[in-house]
Design goal:
The complex is a heterodimer of chains A (about 160) and B (about 450).
Chain A (H helix, E strand, L loop, with lengths): L2 H23 L10 H25 L4 H26 L6 H22 L4 H22 L14
Chain B lengths: L24 H28 L3 H5 L16 H11 L21 H13 L4 H17 L1 H11 L2 H13 L5 H5 L4 H20 L4 H16 L7 H14 L5 H26 L9 H8 L18 H29 L1 H17 L15 H20 L5 H10 L2 H5 L11 H22 L14
Helix pairs in contact in B: 1-5, 1-7, 3-4, 4-5, 5-9, 6-7, 6-9, 7-19, 9-10, 9-11, 10-12, 11-17, 13-14, 14-15, 16-19, 17-19
The chains are: A mainly alpha (about 160), B mainly alpha (about 450).
Chain lengths: ~160, ~450
């Protein structure tokens, strides 16, 4: 298996797992459930792009696979914690805590990937931006995936 | 489960599709006074920065190293060089300090303004540097007006007040008007006006707003053609808004395009006559594209390949002529794109990232207290949250601001990203950031019961 395929599969699996968790957290009648097909198509496109950028990056900085895997795991855990904290801060019972964790992890992974492969920032900036990315992803999911019929909302989401 | 409602946002919920809630007449005069005061404060603070930090000395310093463009090139670079030629009566020419004939390297408006200043205060004089930086400061101060009007139309008075306070007093927004002889302050003013006029055109009947919009787009194109990158998206947004309300738009959109072109036409004719080719407002895109796109590039324009910094390149420029020189390097850049498409995509993505996270500053010489990459994030991050919140609230106009800030930098995603270029869209970013700041503050008060009047409204909606 070449590098591009491996990274493509890694991005696809990680993203689809997170999207599945988020979809699972939505109410059954939610309109956003219909967006799943579009989200999957969008994610496949993003995964192809991300795999190519990662492949190009690794030709310059060849990191071992286990380093990448452990790094991704650490980033996902940090992102999950930030997602949970962001969900608590926003308040309200719009979607599940699992969704906060999943969106935080996904946000941290995407932001860390963007910063590591394509930015010239120093490590401390990359770390800070990654945490903000996790919070932003949770915030976006909370604001965009709220069920319209819900009568229980956070003041931030009014 | 507690549900609270934001008092500042509550009145708009009754009519969420309207751009602005009706305001009593008495509030208009107090708003005028507030805006007028902030314009004066913004201007005076920028003048204070110019004199306190002697920022004019950066322009008037004599370059002692052997720079082919000459010892005064630090004064506005290509802009200053063309303005000097204009003031000497040599016409719009010579962008690199030596006589090289007519040029379209830079758009005409700002160098012409600088030339008028040179005529009055002397070419490359300290008085001229102070006058031009003061002129920039005046543009920046007047930007308070469209910022306030934008924020009050899209959000509310609190967001509007915070936005103009921040614009007027934060040093972050003062660095370009007070340090650089370039059109960025005028571009920021024009882009804010264009956003405001677009919203007016979307909601009003009659042709006045459309005519003004067309003329302003034309003037903006003559000031900085990069601004025009946002024009198609802004017109599409207006058309979409009017279609939603079953209002006519096709003829008016066409009118805007025709008027914009009509304003730029004399300059395009001048380019055809003086340069001998059909050129757009500026002709140097191909060369800038080459500066950022070659095998092994880091994505940022390498000044060592620029005629202003490389004597060999300047000789080549003189030999080939401006148009020939640009076409030569444009072809080289296109050849690179054909040979290394993946590398070009990677570089474009890098430029997109660095445009927003400010990390391109790590490649630039640190020029004092105002140059830090993290400062760039202080505006971008809350603006991103504000945009997400605005879209979620279905605040009409948030889409327009988002379209402008995302698509205006297209030329810079393709060439090279410099944080200076971002100043043109900082008013729009600021309005979104202030919307988020106000919503966040309101949320914190409600969430943690800091407001004595905060009353849980569970079940009232």
């Amino acid at each position: 298996m070449n590098v591009w395929t491996a990274w493509f599969l890694a991005w696809v699996i990680a993203g689809l797992v997170v999207l599945a968790v988020i979809a699972h957290g939505l109410p059954r009648q939610s309109e956003q459930r219909k967006l799943n097909t579009a989200a999957i198509a969008g994610w496949l496109l993003f995964s192809a792009f991300a795999a190519e950028i990662t492949r190009l990056y690794l030709t310059v900085y060849p990191l071992p696979a286990w380093t990448c895997a452990l790094g991704a795991l650490g980033i996902a855990i940090l992102g999950a914690i930030v997602g949970l904290a962001t969900g608590w801060f926003i308040g309200g019972h719009i979607v599940s805590r699992t969704t906060d964790i999943a969106s935080g992890a996904l946000g941290a992974l995407i932001t860390a990937w963007v910063e590591i492969t394509s930015s010239y920032n120093h490590a401390e900036y990359v770390f800070a931006i990654m945490l903000i990315g996790a919070a932003f992803a949770t915030f976006v999911f909370r604001t965009s995936l709220r069920p319209r019929a819900s009568q229980v909302r956070s003041s931030l989401l009014q | 489960m507690i549900e609270t409602i934001s008092p500042s946002l509550a009145p708009e919920r009754s009519n969420p599709k309207s751009f602005s809630a009706e305001r009593p007449q008495s509030r208009h005069s107090s708003a005028r006074i507030a805006i007028g005061s902030m314009v004066i404060v913004a201007f005076l603070l920028r003048i204070l920065v110019i004199f306190a930090f002697h920022t004019y000395e950066y322009q008037t310093r004599i370059i002692t190293k052997d720079l082919p463009a000459g010892s005064h090139y630090a004064f506005g670079f290509e802009t200053g060089s063309i303005a000097g030629a204009l003031a000497r009566g040599e016409g719009f020419s010579s962008p690199f300090g030596i006589q090289s004939g007519p040029t379209a390297w830079i758009a005409p408006v700002y160098p012409s303004m600088c030339a008028v200043v040179f005529k009055i205060f002397g070419i490359y004089s300290t008085a001229s540097a102070v006058a031009i930086l003061s002129l920039n400061s005046l543009f920046a101060a007047f930007t308070c007006i469209p910022i306030y009007l934008l924020a009050i139309r899209l959000f509310d008075n609190r967001v509007a007040q915070l936005s103009i306070w921040a614009w007027a007093t934060f040093p972050f927004f003062m660095r370009w008007p007070t340090t650089w002889v370039w059109e960025v302050s005028l571009s920021a003013l024009l882009m804010a006006c264009l956003a405001l006029l677009s919203i007016k055109a979307a909601e009003r009947e009659g042709q006045r707003a459309w005519i003004l919009l067309g003329l302003t787009w034309g003037f903006a194109g003559l000031t900085s053609p990069s601004l025009l990158a946002a024009m198609p998206f802004s017109l599409l947004w207006i058309a979409w808004q009017r279609k939603r309300r079953s209002r006519t738009y096709a003829v008016s959109v066409l009118l805007v395009i025709v008027l914009c072109f009509a304003v730029m036409l004399p300059w395009l004719i001048r380019n055809r006559v003086r340069m001998g080719h059909y050129l757009f407002v500026r002709d140097n895109f191909g060369f800038e594209f080459y500066l950022g796109n070659y095998h092994g590039s880091n994505g940022f324009g390498f000044s060592g390949k620029h005629p202003a910094a490389n004597a060999k390149q300047l000789i080549y420029f003189s030999e080939l002529g401006e148009v020939g020189y640009i076409r030569h390097f444009q072809n080289e850049a296109l050849q690179f794109v054909r040979e290394y498409p993946e590398e070009f995509v990677q570089l474009t993505f890098k430029r997109f990232v660095c445009f927003w996270d400010g990390s391109s500053l790590n490649f630039e010489k640190r020029e004092g207290w105002y140059w830090r990459p993290w400062e760039m994030l202080l505006l971008v991050i809350p603006a991103a949250f504000g945009a997400a919140l605005g879209l979620s609230h279905r605040k009409p106009g948030t889409e327009l601001l988002l379209l402008i800030v995302l698509f205006y930098p297209i030329p810079y995603y393709l060439t090279y990203a410099n944080v200076r270029y971002r100043h043109a869209i900082e008013p729009e970013l600021l309005v979104l950031a202030c919307f988020f700041a106000c919503s966040l503050w309101n949320h914190v008060r409600m969430r943690f019961a800091l407001a004595p009047s905060a009353e849980p409204l569970e079940g009232r909606l």
